[in-house]
Structure formats: structure tokens, C-alpha cells
Amino acid sequence: MSLGLDGLHVVITGGDGALGHAVVQAFVGAGAICHLPILGRPPADSAAGVHTTAGVDLTDEQAVVDFYTSVPPPAASIHLAGGFKAKPIAETTRADLEQQLLLNLATAFFCCREAVKAMRPHGGGRIVNVAARVVEVPTSGMVAYTISKAGVAALTRALAEEVRGDGIQVNAVMPSIIDTPANRAAMPNARVDRWPKPAELANTILWLASPENRLTSGALIPVYGKA
């Protein structure tokens, strides 16, 4: 099912991560042409419909500007890139806080801004950010991370209102712990059957970013699984 994405250009940040692989696969399956900015080296064999740009530091404002101007105007821009660090507040330094704000909020802000600039002249588009369950269901020991993801949620709602008249819809998903190899290794005794799977999250993101989504904007979609 293409959801109207066949042949459309889509930017996916964090496309080389566990969730990113599932999201890219979903969009390629829907016929989209995916553009992935990554920091490291590109894979030796990219799948058909996937174009990777290496050496893009999404925390570098100019690098984000340069990337968006180097690819065709996207019909959708999906912002999965980010970082996680858990520390009690008494042990959280200014550097820890700034790092979480930079990795999660600043990268989403830069990408949202450049996506809007690229989409406006072409009559609109779709933007999907990634917040987190802790925004609405706080967990102790991760204050800096929670603050940064709350910023992503606020960015999503504020931007959705700002660009409503431009035909651009902006939403965010709020996952809990995602069932990835890294999370399984870090929490070997957890109930992984309760965690949302990357492919399940990808399906939600795919619909939010598709032309079939004609009404939903400014929403924070809970994708918690059974957690």
C-alpha cells in the first residue's frame, strides 16, 4: 500500500539506527525515495530507493542547511535522530543537560526549520518528530532526557499551528522503550514482549507522513505498546 507516497522524496534522519531501518523499509515499501543524512560512513550496498549522505552532523546548524538544500524538496521529513542518557538530577551536569538538548531538541528544530523552508514553495508536506512516553508519564532518573523530549513535543505543537496555513502537517510519536537489540542487551530481565516493535512504530510514522493523513496535525501519538 503506497498511501500516496509512490515516487515522493522523504528525508529520514537517524535512518541508520534500529528504528530507522524499520522506518526506511516501510517508506521504501510504500514507493518513496528516501534521503538519509548520517554522520558515519555510508553502507557499501544501499537498497534501491535509498540515498545516503555521509558526514552530516545534525547538531551542526549549517550542515543541516546544506543537506536540505542538496536533496529534492521533501514531501515528508522524519526526525528519528537523538540520544539518551539517564542520570539522577544530583549527578547531571550542565554538559549532560546541554548534550541532551542538542541531540534531541536542537536537531529536531534545525530539521523542522529546513523542512518547512523546502516544503512551503511546493504547497505543503508532512513532518514527524519523535518525543517520548516520559513526556506524559515521567520516570525517575532521566530529568535531562525528559526535558529535551518535552521540548520536542512543544516544538511539534507550536510548529503545527504556525504552518497550518501552508499545508504542512506536523506530528510526533511518543514511544516507550523500543524493542531493539541494544535495549534488550541493556535490560536482559525486562518484559520485552511489552515493548513496541520498530516495525509497529514505523507503520504509525508512515501514515502520519503520508498524503492519506489529511487532518491530523499537532498531535502527540502514544505508541507505548503494553508498557
Q: Share of helix among residues?
A: 25-40%
Low-confidence sequence ranges: none
Instruction: Output the CATH homologous superfamily.
Output: NAD(P)-binding Rossmann-like Domain
**What is the fold named in CATH at topology level?**
Rossmann fold
Q: Over the alpha carbons, how many angstroms does the gyration radius reach? A: 17 Å
What are the secondary-structure elements, in order, as H or E? Answer: EHEEHEHEHEHHE
- What is the CA-CA span between the terminal residues? 29 Å
β content, as a range? 15-25%
Strand sequence of the main sheet, in spatial order?
Answer: 3-2-1-4-5-6-7
The mean pLDDT is 93
Number of alpha- plus pi-helical segments: 6
The geometry reads as: globular
The CATH first-level class comes to Alpha Beta
Number of domains: 1
Would you tell me the structural class of the helices and strands?
alpha/beta
Q: Tell me the number of strands.
A: 7
What's the topology here?
Elements: E1 9-13, H1 18-29, E2 33-37, E3 50-53, H2 61-70, E4 76-79, H3 94-119, E5 125-130, H4 143-162, E6 168-175, H5 181-186, H6 198-208, E7 220-223
Parallel strand pairs: 1-2, 1-4, 2-3, 4-5, 5-6, 6-7
Helix pairs in contact: 1-6, 2-3, 3-4
Compose a concise summary of this entry.
The chain is α/β, with parallel strands linked by helices. It is 37% helix and 16% strand.
Summarize this structure as a short list of keywords or feature phrases:
seven-stranded parallel beta sheet, 6 helices, about 15% strand, Rossmann fold, alpha/beta, about 230 residues
